[in-house]
Inverse folding.
């Protein structure tokens, strides 16, 4: 086994069952959906209704955006989804049931009727069939899939993305309120200490730019995906570690839709991104020495049937009163490399599942550096899953889905109220230092001043894309 490049594409807010639950049917070695899974909806007045898992018969533009509106993903929402309710609609105090997804969905605030329909109870129980997510499914079958990969914590996006970069969420369970500066030690700094290169490839704004320890080398290490990733892969210029972030916002000028797959964004745009990443890596001269990991930061309120197991706390502060002693809900994880046997079902050797800190553990094992926290120290790495002979080249390329965006779809997406991720990213853009600034002094100022107010709602009607682009340009200088 000879791995010199690790590439991670982290998408948004989809559970394992939602995207890959039907990848292999009636297979005892694969923990997917049987089709009998269900939740009970505890309606007002003591009434109950059984809501089973289901799939749309075809992938229409509407079906590609289910669930719409966006499910709940706050720490308290996820607790209800995992724990479930009892017959009288009260919190379940017994073992977790994974039975609270519908109940939590129907307790969310009503969406804007101009952009989203009212919540439909079955929406969070929806899953996609393999032919509806052909890119992700083909790669999972041609290489490997892990049905034992959990989000690092039962929390929102930012805490889980912090875990993949730092092995901790610094004690914060939600995206907001924001707590700049985020000064946790990062895997990128460990790579630098080990004399290894890294880059973050992004579309509009990288959430990883919130990490203050990356600001000194931002101009060198943050690059636009559309401008450079595919060329870097083609010319053999990929670093030891590449982390890819999707497009989070709708760009009305360039007519670009989000490709992060965050509900209710159209999953087909994310499928196109996955195909582009794979094709670039597969065609490059570094293919034989590359490990590509495709995963999702958290489940985003979409149903999964597997109860998250206990986790090793990362240690450190606990300002929100939670020690992070449990994993989050399962998320998709597809492992791509010539060293992965075709059709592999990849599980860790012991009871601890893979989670986002397994990326850190893999890099630490590969490039010989110390762990960041007790969590990533306890995480299983992926190198033991590379049991092939290096000859699995998979498909030479995968067709990139083409998605037609109508003016009506674009306008609706622009007008949609900002989700929690977008609000946080808007705040992040405001606090980034400008290229050439005294980073230490900037961090000190942030530590002494309150964070800017979050983006108002609705906000995307006055699209922040141009403002964010201006902040990113200032952050990265002439890039």
């Amino acid at each position: 086994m000879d791995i010199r490049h690790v590439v991670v594409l982290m998408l948004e807010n989809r559970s394992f069952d939602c995207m890959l639950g039907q990848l292999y049917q009636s297979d005892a070695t694969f923990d997917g959906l049987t089709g009998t899974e269900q939740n009970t909806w505890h309606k007002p007045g003591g009434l109950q209704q059984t809501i089973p898992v289901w799939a749309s018969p075809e992938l229409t533009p509407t079906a590609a955006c289910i669930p719409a509106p966006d499910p709940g993903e706050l720490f308290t929402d996820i607790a209800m989804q995992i724990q479930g309710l009892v017959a009288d609609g009260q919190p379940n105090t017994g073992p977790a049931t994974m039975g609270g997804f519908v109940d939590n969905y129907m307790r969310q605030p009503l969406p804007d009727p101009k952009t989203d329909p009212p919540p439909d109870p079955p929406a969070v129980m929806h899953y996609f069939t393999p032919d509806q997510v052909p890119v992700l499914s083909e790669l999972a079958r041609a290489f490997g899939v892990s049905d034992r990969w959990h989000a690092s914590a039962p929390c929102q996006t930012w805490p889980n993305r912090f875990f993949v970069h730092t092995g901790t969420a610094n004690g914060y369970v939600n995206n907001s309120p924001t707590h700049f500066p985020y000064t946790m030690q990062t895997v990128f700094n460990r790579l630098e200490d080990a004399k290894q290169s890294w880059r973050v490839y992004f579309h509009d704004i990288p959430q990883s730019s919130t990490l203050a320890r990356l600001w000194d080398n931002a101009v060198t290490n943050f690059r636009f995906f559309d401008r450079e990733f595919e060329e870097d892969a083609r010319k053999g210029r990929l670093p030891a570690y590449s982390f890819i972030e999707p497009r989070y916002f709708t760009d009305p000028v360039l007519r670009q839709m989000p490709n992060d797959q965050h509900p209710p964004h159209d999953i087909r745009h994310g499928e196109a991104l996955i195909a582009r990443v794979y094709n670039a890596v597969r065609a490059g001269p570094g293919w034989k020495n590359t490990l590509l990991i495709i995963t999702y930061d958290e489940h985003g309120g979409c149903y999964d049937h597997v109860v998250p197991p206990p986790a090793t706390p990362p240690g450190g502060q606990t300002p929100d009163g939670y020690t992070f002693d449990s994993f989050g809900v399962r998320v998709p994880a597809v492992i791509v490399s010539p060293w992965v046997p075709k059709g592999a079902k990849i599980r860790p050797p012991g009871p601890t599942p893979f989670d986002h800190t397994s990326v850190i553990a893999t890099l630490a094992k590969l490039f010989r550096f110390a762990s960041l926290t007790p969590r990533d120290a306890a995480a299983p790495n992926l190198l033991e899953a590379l049991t092939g002979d290096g000859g699995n080249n998979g498909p030479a390329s995968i067709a990139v889905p083409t998605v037609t965006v109508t003016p009506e779809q674009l306008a609706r997406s622009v007008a949609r109220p900002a989700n929690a991720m977008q609000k946080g990213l808007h705040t992040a853009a405001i606090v980034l230092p400008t290229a050439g600034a005294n980073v230490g002094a900037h961090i000190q100022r942030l530590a002494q001043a309150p964070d800017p107010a979050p983006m108002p709602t609705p906000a995307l009607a006055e699209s922040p894309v141009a403002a964010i682009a201006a902040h990113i340009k200032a952050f990265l200088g002439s890039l």
